[in-house]
Amino acid sequence: MPSETMATSPQKRRVVVTGIGLVTPIGNTREENWQALLSGRSGAGPITRFDASGYDVRFAAEVKNFDPRQFFDAREVKRTAPYIQYAVAAADEALADSRLDLTRLDRQRCGVYVSSGIGGFNVIEREHARLLDEGPRHISPYFMIAFLVNMAAGHISIRHGLQGPLGATATACAASVHAIGESFRLIQRGEAEVMVCGGTEGAITPMGVSGFSAAKAMSTRNDDPQRASRPFDARRDGFLLGEGAGILVLEAYDHAVARGASMYAELVGYGMSGDAHHITAPAPEGEGMYRMMVATLHDAGVAPEQVDYINAHGTSTPYNDKFETLAIKRAFGAHAYRLAVSSTKSMTGHTLGAAGGIEACYSALAVARQVIPPTINYETPDPECDLDYAPNEPRPAALNYVLSNAAGFGGTNGGLLFKRV
Q1: What mean pLDDT is predicted for residues 378-402?
Q2: Top-tier CATH class for 15-258
Q3: In this predicted structure, what is the pLDDT of residue 199?
Q4: Extents of the domains making up the chain
Q5: CATH tag, 272-419
Q6: Active site residues
Q7: CA distances from residue 245 to 44, 252, 328 in whole angstroms, order as listed
Q8: pLDDT at 3 over 60
């Protein structure tokens, strides 16, 4: 770590997590998710959203028992896509959890940064079918505002009157890590006191499933969906498509202390990198992810040996898991064999643009509760994936620093480092 650079850099404000909200295939609240993680429960099952009987892949990890009418009136339900509905529900929970009194805040210093990889895919499909069947005059006037990637953030901002920085990234499966990281930067620089941030996705649709299937990215274990997602296992054959939202409330540490807030964890590092290699395949030896992890640690001023656990990108695809393992070994050296690594995608599936937000929530909970969530379905060791993947059972552990990794198509990578408060 170049000490001269760190010594001359301006003082950055500390940033903490004071609220968590989750809607995922394994639970519609924070505590439902945590209990599902501890019990190692998969969210996979046959697709119910449409008739998938003629598809190569006929299962997914759907959000279950979610009623958007708890958050929207009947007209709004029709005008909003699932990715917006999940984000609003998770944001409501996160803000309630933070116990912020919004009536007493300067709302111009409270912002929203919620991202998605795809946005309202189902709306695009529905309106395209209507265009072909009924003609252009029958397209919904709400079409454009129902599918755009930034609309989840917009709804949350309007709903809670948050007038500060407002944004959304569309960086594929790293989108919500980038949203959280950029929110972190805004608070560090003093441009905001509070940011509601994370990611959301709702792409279990005919085009979503058939597109990833055509790309040979998904598992085809139609006869055994709950064991399909098996990150780092030698018999992995692709990812499990999931959906949902993970939202954090980030807050300036001094602001949180002044109001006596409870804190899950401190966010201390954020890093990004580009593979500059291939539009879908990871860079050789995981070189891009390696540079991202080094950048994240450098941003925090933390040595590799201080990290206790990594919530891996861990998609259950042959290439990702191999190259992420190589990247971890390169970034952490001998310490890679002493820290724990797990992939909660083994339970939630790959929630695409929501994945980094959901896994950031899980990482902050792991720090707060001192437990490592497991990698379920880990049965057959892979000689090329030879780290400690916390197989099948949660593990109590002393966690001071937890790293959460993400990567996406186009060669984009992002990482977040959480610290025990």
Answers
A1: 98
A2: alpha beta
A3: 98
A4: 15-258, 272-419
A5: 3.40.47.10
A6: 173, 313, 350
A7: 16, 23, 27
A8: no
